[in-house]
Design goal:
Oligomer: single chain
Distance between the termini: 44 Å
Order of helices and strands: EHEEHEEHEEHEEHEEHE
Radius of gyration: 21 Å
């Protein structure tokens, strides 16, 4: 049902079931629902409005009943056109106040009997989805069982496996933790690959344009990055917290047009819902 107000009580249930849509100012909630309803049961469509003018900011959210519905919409709707806007829409998984990374939607954590090896677990889940890898570790809380971490070919594969897993599997999406690399443990010739480097800016590019973002202290750098990365040209993002309720982020684009577009689109945007971010021009 089309709705101009964000009324979904739990935006994280089921996980990854809510999409962020950059759609243009002429797109209505009804048009948004018409575009996305073929992919599954839509619980809510919301168009973000400027609080002072009441006009659309060209940003929408679509909440689905199932994770797999959102995954299918993400795969098939990105790049489509919604009349009367001439530009294609851009679709991303909506980031909530719970920290998540782009690849977290590809990995599941499931419980399984210890007598099943990785090949057996992979074979069981491959009946529904394309499984890339399986890692087994002993379940410390339940002797005689293992915990399996499955990585899937796509978000849709992971979503279908999550929804069709047996109750005893207790399947849930699992965060992908970056592997820590020690330079001391690496061969001398390999150490150079792990050293930090400074990106050189091409003289053909316009000088980077910076924005200052005042936001909730609950937001992480990853969440701010994913929000502003909706607009092409993002090259850097950093955030600092002073221990209070507000955080300050610096967002840098490689051209002034992208920075202006981001400022116009996202200033006073509610992120998370109920808390507005403030976007201002920063020092060049």
């Amino acid at each position: 049902m089309a709705n101009e107000q964000p009324t979904v009580p739990d935006l994280n249930s089921p996980p990854f079931s809510r999409l962020f849509v950059l759609c243009g100012r002429q797109v209505t909630a009804a048009a948004l629902e018409e575009c996305f309803s073929p992919y599954g049961s839509v619980e809510q469509c919301h168009i973000v409005q400027d609080q002072s003018t009441g006009q659309s900011k060209g940003i929408g959210f679509v909440k689905f009943q199932k994770t797999s519905h959102a995954a299918r919409a993400l795969k098939e709707a990105d790049g489509k056109h919604i009349e009367p806007e001439p530009k294609p829409i851009r679709v991303e998984i909506a980031t909530s106040t719970i920290e998540s990374k782009p690849l977290d939607c590809l990995r599941l954590k499931v419980k399984c009997p210890a007598d099943l090896d990785a090949d057996a677990v992979k074979a069981e889940f491959s009946k529904i989805s394309a499984v890339n890898s399986v890692q087994l570790v002993p379940d410390k809380k339940s002797p005689g069982n293992n915990v399996a971490y499955l990585t899937f070919e796509s978000f849709l594969d992971a979503a279908l496996a999550y929804e069709t897993a047996k109750p005893e599997h207790k399947a849930k999406f699992a965060k992908i933790k970056p592997r820590k690399v020690s330079l001391e443990s690496q061969p001398q010739e390999a150490k150079a690959f792990f050293r930090p480097f400074t990106r050189r800016r091409s003289s053909a590019l316009l000088p980077p344009t910076k924005l200052t973002v005042l936001c909730s202290s609950t937001l992480t750098q990853n969440q701010i990055w994913r929000l502003f990365d909706i607009i092409p040209g993002l090259v850097n993002c950093s955030i600092s917290h002073d221990g209070g309720s507000m955080g300050t982020a610096t967002v840098t684009y490689n051209n002034s047009q992208s920075a202006k577009y981001a400022r116009d689109k996202l200033h006073k945007f509610e992120y998370p819902i109920g808390e507005k971010i403030v976007v201002r021009d920063g020092a060049e």
